[in-house]
Amino acid sequence: MTAARQTTLNHEQSEFSAARAAEKIACEKQNVMAAHTVAGHALDAQDCAYLLEMLGLDAAGREE
């Protein structure tokens, strides 16, 4: 008995895509909060820019 079993991964792929999209949104929100925190503790605009660059964030909070 050698019946080939075919399975599709559409459901798993769509779940994975949804999870990745949700994770991306969560990371963006976290990065925005981090950028706001850095801005609140920076000494001046130059210090803020340096700290954001060091952390891999930009002024809009998007990850680079």
Structural class: mainly alpha
Q: Approximately how much helix is present in the residues?
A: 55-70%
The count of helical stretches stands at 2
Task: Report the major sheet.
Answer: none
Mean pLDDT: 84
Counting DSSP E segments of at least 2 residues, the number of strands comes to 0
| Share of β-strand residues | under 5%
First and last CA, distance: 54 Å
Quick recap:
This protein is mainly alpha-helical. The chain has 2 helices and no strands.
Descriptive overview:
It is a single chain. The chain contains two helices and no strands. The longest helix is centred in the middle third of the chain and has 32 residues, at 10-41. Helix 1 (10-41) runs antiparallel to helix 2 (45-55). The mean pLDDT is 84. By secondary structure, it is mainly alpha-helical. Helices cover 67% and strands 0% of the residues.
